[in-house]
Request: fold
Amino acid sequence: MAREGARPAFDPAGHDAALRAALQDLRTGRWMSMRTLLADTTQWWQWTRRTQVLAAAAAGTDVVRAWLAEEPDSVPAAVMRARVAVERALRAHREQHRRTHELWVEAWDASDGAARVAPQDPVPWVCLLALAQIDRDQRWEEHRAAPPDPMLPTGPWGLLAEADRRDPFNREAHHRMLQFLYARASSGRPTEAVGYAHWAAESAPRGSALHVLPLYVRVERYRRGGGQDAALDLHWVAEDAGREAHRALHLWFEHTHMAERSLLDLNHLAHALWGALQFPDAARVFDALGPYYTAVPWAYRTPQPGDPAQATEVFVQARTRCRAARDPGGRP
Reply:
């Protein structure tokens, strides 16, 4: 447990020590640790998470290209090439870079190629799904498929189905669908995302990270509402907010182990329970985070969401409040 008041750290590897070691090597231009790590990864949820984190670190380097030059027939290297290409395309899209379309096409080709050489792998389909958010107007036919439920909008449902077929209830795949729906809503209210998150959570089994999806949408609604508004504070203590937090705690958190949990999911759950005034339960989630944290969603409860120091301060204050409520009179 992180001691009371200790400043948390952001670490993309979180509790995954093996991933942390591979990241350290990757940042120095070495790829063998990444190769070994991926060869030892046998579960799809872990494969999906590790390839995503590695790609974020590799996107500004030529490490994956060097790996492919040495091992051109490597399937994991082909998947990582797709991951890196998608990361670069999405960054260009966010920055409105003039090469966005070119990088999008390159990423689509790399992802399609990875799907062919790794037919059982959900990640290439997650990659294709991630790229759908760039096609905000749904010009591509595969991005305007009919939904599985009449209450849902058209979208890249076929891509989601392919990922789900290989790894049912894949966490990242469903978050990529959320991002697509956010992009459709642009700066408006993410109404479609609300319906989607509840639909996905209601269909998920116990232990699935999809039970946390409604908490993400609640944060997005708050962010788009402007935040830092006294009236919006009711957003966190409303009956439905407490119910969403309770469901995520009892249907996801209590049925998973530390290694399975995403730091982002833990932070969203701790934030939701704290906001709903369920302090003792929130303290349990803070304990599970240990020394780590993510700036989101705490940053949205600050006057300057771009200042990580302010996000850290809100996190520490919330953790202290929740632990004090659970352990009144106890020592830090």
Observations:
- The chain has a mean pLDDT of 93.
- Residues 11-170 form a domain with the Serine Threonine Protein Phosphatase 5, Tetratricopeptide repeat fold (CATH 1.25.40).
